[in-house]
Amino acid sequence: MSVLPSVYNEDHPYNAWMRRVAPIGVVVLVGLVVFGQQFISGFFSQTLETPPEEMRASEALSDSDLDGFTVECKAMVKFTAIERKLAASGAYDEDPQATTDASTELADAVSLLEEAAISRTQRLRFGIVVAELLGPGAALEALEPLANEVGPASVLSPDIAALRKLYAETSTPLDPAARQALIDRHGWFGWLAAGFGQNDSNSDRRWALSGGRALVAIGMLSTAMMLVGLLLGAVLIVVVLRKAHAGEFDSQVARTDVPRFLYAETFLVAQLVFLVYLFANVLLHDADPVATSTVTEVLLWGEGLLLAWPLLRGVTFATMRTDLGLHSGESLIHELVFGVGGWLISVPVTFMIGWVLTVVMPDSETPSGIPMFERPGPGGWTAVVLGAISAVVWAPLLEETLFRGALHRWLPNGLGVWGRVLMTSVIFGIVHPYSPQGLIQVGAAGVVFGLLREWRGSLIAGMVCHFLHNATIEGINIGTLLALN
Q1: Residue 401: pLDDT band by 50, 70, 90 thresholds?
Q2: Residue spans per domain, the chain
Q3: pTM of the predicted model, to two decimals?
Q4: Which one of 162, 196, 382, 429 counts the least CB within 10 Å of its CB?
């Protein structure tokens, strides 16, 4: 017994109305989601040319190790330290021109970092980083305007005085009280200041510069994985093309007697919740972080519950699984293996498309200035973990069921395999809030997911491929953050 009018009751007015409205609704809702994604992307990228005075005067002692400014500082310092060690050890021959270019690049990077240092706290921490990268003279020059700006009652005044003394008398380390105060108030930046001018055996310096080798290792591992993926993927592409030419690939998508429009309706109700989620991010951007995170996460995961919409319209669970591809296909092991193979194929495909796009349509410059609005949600590792869970769990499960399940099932047989795959891939690409280059790459990945759906019948292979794609990116990002911290 269905909760809503049964989809099998052709004479019911609701079904007659939905049969006409659902296709139009899909087009309209996709347009609204695209607008919503781009609107939100533009909303949070709005900037001010000059920061408000209250922002510049802020002395808040943020203790987050994962804010953008701190991450950039750590990466710059630790990579520079590794490069200097390699140069000092004679690991590579010094080319005068290369040394000059590296110095210019470092100076340019420091200039960008200076632009990002807005508050008094950030400008003080910037001075600590400049001492490490460009020397004590440059640090004193960076700290002088700040010293003239703050009064003796400022919480930063003792820190500024201690740092100016440290960089003016480079042979004299910080006294114990000043050292501890800097560490207590500025965390990693305090350790970096405490180790300034010391040799590499100094515990403060070792702690501040730790993680550099891990960063290099992550970079080398990422490169190695990419090369292996490119090689194996290229081999698999040749194998697949040969089999396709021999006519060995047929569509395995099963279709029941459920009217197609029901799956357009399912797509609609799920995307409506996603649209609410998008605008909740804007409406709650300045609300309590915990409450905002709770509301948005409930909406995001609630979208998945609505993919069971066919059950409310009288479709049996077994029939819904068949239509959406939520079954084990040939066998669970087979689908897992084909999912891994699909991911390997996607590596050279997305890499080559990305390389071509960088040549023919390079990314536009990132907007400069001061962000007018902060994105909602908790900061720190909570935000990182929630984002990773969404990317490696929510996206493979929900997006595949929505796009390669409901939307794919709604499209008519007359479109053929490539017609259905390309249409779902285009929609899948444009609903993401990326640049034009990013949208094309996402759409290309969607083609691989869609072909897996057609060839295997089951969504499992596509979900595994999607999972590996996102997990690789998130793994590198999280590994980098762990090394930096």
Answers
A1: very high
A2: 13-44+215-484, 55-210
A3: 0.87
A4: 382
